[in-house]
Amino acid sequence: MDLHAQYLSIKPEIDAAIAEIIASSAFIRGRYVDDFEEAFAKAVGVKHCVSCANGSDALFLAMRALGIKPGDEVIVPAHSWISTASMVTHAGGKVVFCDTEADSFLIDTQQIEPKITSRTVGIIPVHLFGQPADMDEIMAIAKKHNLWVVEDCAQAHMATYKGQQVGTFGDAGCFSFYPGKNLGAMGDAGAVVTNSNSMAENIAMIARHGGLKKNDHQIEGINSRMDGLQAAILLSKLKYIDHWNDCRIKIASKYRTRLDSCPNLKPPPLKNNRLHVWHLYVIRSTNRELLGRRLTSADVAWNINYPCALPHLPAYAGHKYKSDEFPNATSDSQTIISLPIYPELKDECVDRIIEIICSIE
Q: For residues 285 and 263, is the Cβ–Cβ distance under 8 A?
């Protein structure tokens, strides 16, 4: 990504927002935080948005507000950023990994029910790389087994499933505004969205030292607040998110059209009835090392998101998961590579990247 290019495209607005925060000393909470929470809730189509310090905290706060207890099991996909799993543990629960689909990077809904036990309390589907998970099937399973659902929307700002925004299906939706996200701050920030009045109040209370008013600590909470500076920046950027997502979609379409016939690689799947917002453009390549070297030699940035399936990380070595327990997630982690994609990426740059990739036999 080129974050500076995005800044330059709206520089006067960002500079004015930062100057206003400095002039008013509205560094913690304040009008800009309130205004952003209201605006983001409206943009997503929910009643409440509770801001917090980052996307990881958003997951933690949602689970704490849902009353997770020690030993409670939560099902998460085996291929994601570690926060999806680690926050279950930090909130007091036990993470249970589920493999991903063979034709996508999303949680395999056919594998969820076999993972459910008498201790299961919830499911965290991840709308990975910007594409929504199968929310119809996930919500049907949750209803059947009386489970809560917390959507990990960290990479899917304004993505939709059958016309409905992600984050609005489950009990809560958790967003990250890390600088590289489709809607990114200039530092860390996050939010939880929900239609539940009581849950929104509980989340806010937990995030603000256990009270909604200063010195009125109803419970023992934590300190997870969005800075006023980040709220002002996000509020300035929010009006552009649909345009920026459209730019990503056009770039992804160009990649897909041209790369579909290239040997030794597979473009990312595009599932029906979903608006994919392409936080990342991730392909599978049988020659990933060679492709990486070629891109590097041509001064083209690339990354691997994520190079190890979660169950096989050292953090979970104590569980002694076998290498064949999560075949799709494991295979994907060994073949995926992320290509440049951001709204300001020029057509000629996309063409050059495609030419490099397709030149590899």
A: no
Contact by Cβ (8 Å): 224, 33: no
The last residue of one of the domains, among 238, 269, 298, is 238
In SS3 terms, 4-57 reads as HHHHHHCHHHHHHHHHHHHHHCCCECCHHHHHHHHHHHHHHCCCEEEEECCHHH
Q: Are 141 and 123 in contact (CB under 8 A)?
A: yes
Same domain, 317 and 170: no
Question: In terms of domains, do 69 and 213 share one?
Answer: yes
Q: Quick check: helix, strand or coil at residue 176?
A: strand
Question: Could you tell me if residue 20 is inside a domain?
Answer: yes
Question: What tokens does 6 get?
Answer: 């995005």
Name the H helices within 53-207.
55-65, 83-91, 135-145, 197-207
Q: Both 152 and 34 in a single domain?
A: yes
Structure tokens given for 217: 């600590």
**One domain, residues 251 and 228:** no
**Which domain range does residue 89 map to?**
3-98+108-238
Scanning the chain, the segments in alpha helix (DSSP H) are 3-9, 11-24, 31-44, 55-65, 83-91, 135-145, 197-207, 228-238, 241-259, 288-297, 327-335, 347-358
pLDDT digit of tens for each residue in the chain (361 aa)? 899 999 999 999 999 999 999 999 999 989 999 999 999 999 999 999 999 999 999 999 999 999 999 999 999 999 999 999 999 999 999 999 999 999 999 999 999 999 999 999 999 999 999 999 999 999 999 999 999 999 999 999 999 999 999 999 999 999 999 999 999 999 999 999 999 999 999 999 999 999 988 888 999 999 999 999 999 999 999 999 999 999 999 999 999 999 988 888 999 989 999 999 999 999 999 999 999 999 999 999 999 999 999 999 999 999 999 979 999 999 999 999 999 999 999 999 999 999 999 988 6
For residues 122 and 224, state if they share a domain.
yes
Residues 227 and 273 occupy one common structural domain: no
Q: Name the pTM for this structure.
A: 0.97
Measured between alpha carbons, how far is 79 from 333 in angstroms, rounded to an integer?
A: 8
Residue 103 lies in a domain: no
Residue 197 amino acid letter: N
